TrEMBL record:
It comes from Macrococcus brunensis. InterPro entries: CBS_dom, CBS_dom_sf, Diverse_CBS-Domain, DRTGG, HotDog_dom_sf, Ser_kin/Pase_Hpr-like_N_sf, Thioestr_dom, WH-like_DNA-bd_sf. Residues 194-253, 255-313 form the CBS domain. Keywords: CBS domain. CDD domains: CBS_pair_DRTGG_assoc, hot_dog. This is CBS domain-containing protein. Pfam families: 4HBT, CBS, DRTGG.
Length: 430
């Protein structure tokens, strides 16, 4: 086990909420501060530590997919550009709702409880009540808190935060952040499907063609990431690279160097796009310092995208709102709602794009062509469209191949053309 891996293992067994410092890690494990620093950054990439201004680096609980819709109090500190006043050991805890303490004390009590954040001004009695009921506290307006409140927060392990924003502004910020998290929950990322490095067959730069053949025979695979002596992704080698070569030939002489890689937060759609466009079957997953975390394969990516199509979506993105209003028949129609308008009361350009995307998906599904990635899109905005206008969308397939489709989309208001678009799509088929 390398020193880097030893540090990661050491961090993983630390108690959640523990403070972590480069100097202490270096001292405890007898490593250089440079090695400790790089390992702590890697741990942050893996989601097991978090670094915050004026707070430092702390051990946090890695969020599961089931908990991704909930923000931690550590994330709230960053979102509101706030400060931690007390209760540091509770920063890793998450909130599922927040309440505003602008009401009588007996009414406030109804909204307090575990995983709740109470937003309040300089009302010490309400601050104390919230902590006693198991709720974290966010003090707005930049007000200070008393020592007794700070001590109570430390005792309960419940964060008490401070921000210069007023209550209305900070409530909007947090509400938006919670909404964004809800949408993110439905977005599949590489972290959900990767084959971890512990289960990944790899070769090293000084291995030989003979080693490739032995590994291919034992694993049944023909494509492997190639690592350097620091376990960084250095290249990719496939069966095409070793045809008719001597068994003693070094892998580093025949591999494809500087492979295309992705990280844990890369979306499945991004992987599909890269694999189709570049014609590759395997993507190494790396950390920020390029160490191999695992791999994703074309088969896993396509299976994940098919799975998404079979699941109900709970997020209400712009495309979701547009799709709910679209009616599909011989023609596609949609009524422009206030939510689709800009500040001038006319349909926003982003809604035009969403309508075109959804109409394109509908046509390709009707042609039984599966999913598609839009490669290029040229839109001409010819007329403004006011609220409550009923639009008719027509799609024409100009060219359809095995991997690409070229289409024209026209949007009418009554007999008048309000927008036209030309687009090129990549077709995704299992």
């Amino acid at each position: 086990m390398t020193k880097h891996e030893q540090i990661i293992k050491h961090i993983e067994v630390l108690k959640v909420g523990s403070k972590i410092s480069v100097r202490q890690i270096a001292k405890d494990l007898s490593v250089s501060e440079g090695t400790a620093y790089r390992a702590i950054k890697d741990a942050e990439n893996r989601g097991i530590v978090s670094t915050m201004e004026r707070i430092g680096t702390i051990r946090i609980e890695k969020k599961t997919r089931e908990a991704i819709e909930n923000l931690t109090f550590a994330e709230i500190v960053k979102i509101i550009d706030g400060q931690l006043i007390g209760g540091r050991t509770g920063l890793h805890k998450s909130l599922s709702r927040f309440a505003i303490g602008a009401m009588e004390q007996e009414d406030v009590t109804k909204y307090l409880g575990e995983n709740t954040l109470l937003i309040v001004g300089n009302r010490e009695n309400i601050q104390q009540l919230a902590l006693e009921k198991g709720s974290a506290v966010l003090v707005t307006g930049g007000f200070a808190v008393s020592d007794s409140i700070r001590q109570l927060a430390d005792q309960k392990g419940l964060p008490i935060l401070s921000t210069s924003h007023d209550t209305f502004a900070v409530a909007n910020i947090i509400n938006r952040a919670l909404y964004d998290q809800l949408i993110k929950q439905e977005v599949l990322t590489v972290a959900e499907i990767l084959i971890p490095v512990s289960e990944t067959n790899v070769l090293y730069e000084n291995d030989t063609v003979g080693d490739w053949k032995a590994l291919s025979h034992s694993s049944g695979h023909t494509r492997f990431p190639v690592l350097d002596d620091q376990n960084r992704a250095y290249g990719i080698v496939t069966n095409k690279d070793i045809i008719d070569l001597d068994n003693s030939m070094k892998i580093k002489r025949i591999m494809t160097k500087n492979p295309i890689t992705v990280n844990l937060s890369s979306t499945i759609a991004t992987c599909a796009h890269v694999m189709i466009w570049e014609g590759i079957e395997l993507l190494p997953v790396v950390s920020k310092n390029h160490r191999l975390i695992g791999i994703v394969t074309r088969e896993d990516v396509l299976r994940a995208m098919q799975s998404i199509e079979r699941q109900p979506q709970i997020g209400h993105t712009l495309n979701d709102q547009v799709l709910k209003q679209m009616k599909f028949g011989d023609d596609i129609t949609i009524r422009v709602t206030p939510q689709m308008s800009n500040q001038l009361g006319t349909m926003s350009k982003s809604v035009f794009v969403a309508i075109i995307e959804e109409a394109t998906k509908h046509l390709l599904k009707r042609e039984r062509r599966g999913e598609a990635l839009i490669e290029s899109l040229n839109i001409y905005f010819l007329k403004t469209v006011p609220i409550d206008t009923v639009l008719t969308i027509s799609c024409e397939m100009l060219d359809l191949g095995r991997k690409f489709a070229k289409m024209e989309v026209t949007i009418h208001s009554e007999e008048e053309i309000v927008s036209k678009a030309m687009l090129m799509c990549q077709l995704i088929e299992a």
